[in-house]
Amino acid sequence: VQSTVFPIVADGGEAIEAAIQKALTDCDILVVIGGVGKGEANYQDYTLEAVRKMGQIACHGVQLSPGGKNLLLAEIEGKPLLGIPGPPHAAIIMTEYFLPPVIEWYMGCLLYERPVIEAVLEDDFPPRGGGSSIWELRVHVREAPGGYSARLVGRMGETVENFIGANASVSVTGDRDQYRKGKGIKAKLLVNERTITSNT
Q1: Judging by DSSP bridges, how do beta strands 134-144 and 147-152 pair with one another?
Q2: Is 27 exposed, middle or buried (0-12, 13-18, 19+ CB in 10 A)?
Q3: Residue 148 phi/psi, 5° resolution?
Q4: Sign of the CA dihedral 154, 157, 160, 166?
Q5: Residue 153 and residue 72: Cα distance in Å, rounded?
């Protein structure tokens, strides 16, 4: 799979439409960043309007945080378009979750899946959201007696620093009581398992 990065486009429906149209001639799958919020013109979220005019919107918003409420899935001229929010933490999570299945669907091939390991929580995970929402949290996994342990990385904010010290992620769903200190969780590795040590 080869990727091409196009220049940043100024806010404005016509400029975004022109950029999307140009990109469609060279790409099988298009990913756009920013401008997909539900405030639309009031908050300069012009990408949603442009995509709506040019193609079909399949989904706008999912129950996954951070960033899911503004996720955009659409089709233009038979090609899939993934719209992800601009904040770095949300953009990273949405890309990890949704770009691989879009590629698999369009290309008809399976992609690499990150390994999942069992780990014991070193601290309570603070409650976030509720209901059927999923929270994707970054953690740091290390070797511990009998296996692995995991701790939450920094504060759960909109900062790239939130990701720097992480080597795994956890999907927090359902009853938050299951995410207490000493409980076992499943962590999806962001690194090779051989790089995890007891003193990192």
Answers
A1: antiparallel
A2: middle
A3: -135, 155
A4: positive
A5: 28
How would you classify residue 77: left for phi > 0, otherwise alpha for psi between -120 and 50, otherwise beta?
left
Tens digits of per-residue pLDDT, 59-107?
999 988 888 888 999 999 999 999 998 888 888 889 988 999 999 988 8
The Cα 158–Cα 60 span in angstroms is 21
Residues 134-179: tens digit of each pLDDT: 888 888 999 999 899 999 886 555 566 667 778 999 988 877 678 8
Q: What is the dihedral of CA 133, 90, 10, 53, to 10 degrees?
A: -30
In SS3 terms, 40-77 reads as: HHHHCCHHHHHHHHHCEEEEECCCEECCHHHCEEEEEC
Amino acid at 34: G
Read off the tokens for 138.
Answer: 């970054």
pTM for this model (two decimals): 0.79
